[in-house]
Amino acid sequence: MSSQTLIRVIATREFMARIRSRVFAIATLLTVIGIGGYILLQAYVFNKPTTSSLDVGFVGAAQSIAAPVRAEAAAFGETITVHPYTSVATGRADVRSGTLNALVSGSGAGTTVAVQSAVDPTLQTALNDQARQQVLAEYLTLHGLPPADVIGQLAFSVSVDELSLANAAQEEQIVIGLFVAGTLYITLIMYGQFVAQGVIEEKSNRIVEIMLAAVRPWQLMMGKIIGIGLVALVQVVIVAGAALVLASATKLVSIPTLSVDVVISGVVWFVLGYLIYALLFAAAGSMVSRQEDMTSVALPVILVLVAAWIIALTVAAPDPGSTATAIFSFVPLFSPVIMPVRIAAGVAPFWQVAISVILAIAMIYILAALAGRIYRNSVLRIGGRVKISDALGLTTTSEKQVV
To answer: 103 pairs with which residues across the strands?
Structure first.
């Protein structure tokens, strides 16, 4: 059989064995439940609009400003229920008993609000504005000027010139980019270690010796990487699809904000990132024979991924258009996590994305050759940890295989 056929057979075997396992089903279900719970908390708890309601009484001349005070308070997200009173004493008694939050009496400069302890800031601002308008209208009338004309000249808002590129839409896009990057980060760590564990398992139970009688080491390595990668892709699609449907249903994210390029870039960078790190994990796994030793060889690879995620949080998310973010997004070991943030924020030109992809592909070819050499020189060595010099074939002597 050709190399492509052999790799396809090995990948299919690896894919079917893992996709049918209970571990895959349980892990996928728990991940969907966890992300779904987080989305529901964001939609209905953390992002729930904070509105307050006040019962305010207006007595005598103060009843003329009841409607404008209620309208101004509503603009600030506060609901005022107006209660007309004919007696100040009755209103003050209701305030003392807690039936009423405040009682407004008088007019103009003599406007007074009675409360139990402290007045609500929004109510006080609205009362101040309406009382001042009354005083202004009285002053204009006293001097023979039409109050409506003069006050009409004051009905304007200060124009806002936003000098920063950041706005609500872009912030939402950055959050989406971080979600994509976080999903890739978690998936790369989890399934990269699955690759290392699979290599160690086959090495420790000596199955690899039987398989290498029929296939070459690099073919076995690539088949395992591709098979596990397809499982990871299926899980990412299921989890991301469920999260997207739930986020859209709860209005936490709008579909137009999640543009096609963000989805495509997420898939592309998952494939590129997975191949980069799976090759590293496969090489690392082939250097040891026990699952207990996996942490020691996989830790350097995990730390690189952790560094990429920290950079995404501390550098890319606060300022995706910065020079530092752009430089980090060109580093192949960092770009699978950082570039999706820049693409989602809309600050990554096509030529920069293209260069980053080319550099990542070049890194995959280099790592494929390097990892294949390490795998070939290490996978049949049973016992202690293989030295990196022996794994790379840099020494003339090698440890004897323990049978």
So the answer is: 57, 114
Grouped pLDDT means (10 residues each) for the chain, 403 residues: 83 89 88 80 62 85 90 86 92 91 89 87 88 82 75 58 52 76 87 87 79 81 90 87 77 57 83 92 86 85 93 89 92 93 87 94 92 84 78 60 39
Number of domains in the chain: 2
209 in a domain, yes or no?
yes
State whether residue 166 is helix, strand or coil: coil
> Do both 195 and 324 map to the same domain?
yes
Do 85 and 211 lie in a common domain? no
Q: Name the residue range of residue 9's domain.
A: 3-40+167-391
| Residue closest to 286 by CA, chosen among 380, 182, 355 | 380
DSSP 65: G
With tokens 């191949």, the residue in question is 275
Is residue 303 classed exposed, middle or buried when 0-12, 13-18 and 19+ CB atoms within 10 A define those classes?
exposed
**Angle at Cα 291 formed by Cα 270 and Cα 365, nearest 5°?**
35
Boundary of a domain, candidates 153, 187, 209: 153
> What residues contact 108, with CB distance under 8 A and at least 6 apart?
131, 134, 135, 138
Q: How far apart are CA 209 and CA 72, in angstroms?
A: 79
Q: Which residues are 85's β-sheet partners?
A: 59
Residue 290: C-alpha distances to residues 27, 191, 252, 367, 394 (Å): 24, 18, 45, 24, 24
Are the C-beta atoms of 242 and 38 separated by less than 8 Å? Answer: no
Q: Specify the pTM.
A: 0.66
- Residue 277, in any domain of the structure: yes
Rounded-to-10 torsion of CA 389, 391, 395, 396: 170
Q: Are residues 209 and 280 in the same domain?
A: yes
- Which of these three, 153, 183, 199, is where a domain ends? 153
